[in-house]
Amino acid sequence: MTVSRLIELVRQQGAASNSRGMELATVIAPPPGLVIRIDNMALTLDGDDLIVCESLLEHEIDYTTTPQLAGSEMTLAGGGPHRHDVTAVTIQEQTMILHSRLKAGDRVAVLALPGEQQYLVFDKVVIAG
């Protein structure tokens, strides 16, 4: 094998293992049956073709919060004003459901994974301004 042929083989192998990088796509159908179309390709992807970041899907999170409150005054039935000096209320170990943020027509950033058999749907994108 000549040196130039060896160099060409190394280049081909390197090109085959490099992904195309970040690309833009459009949501055709929202989750749970997510379908996207990658820009400049006649290619639609769904199901096993996609790995989606959790923040883009409906999911549950557990949280605790302590909002700061101002004292409040209220009037009780049959009585005069009644004042409570509450400065904080702690809400512990609650569960919140975050609903899908993706809908048809949304633009998303996608990344081809090595081998380009799957794409990572990274985030929703918008045009600033």
UniProtKB/TrEMBL annotation:
Xref: Pfam families: DUF2577 (PF10844)
Highest taxon above the source species: Bacteria
Name recorded for this polypeptide: DUF2577 domain-containing protein
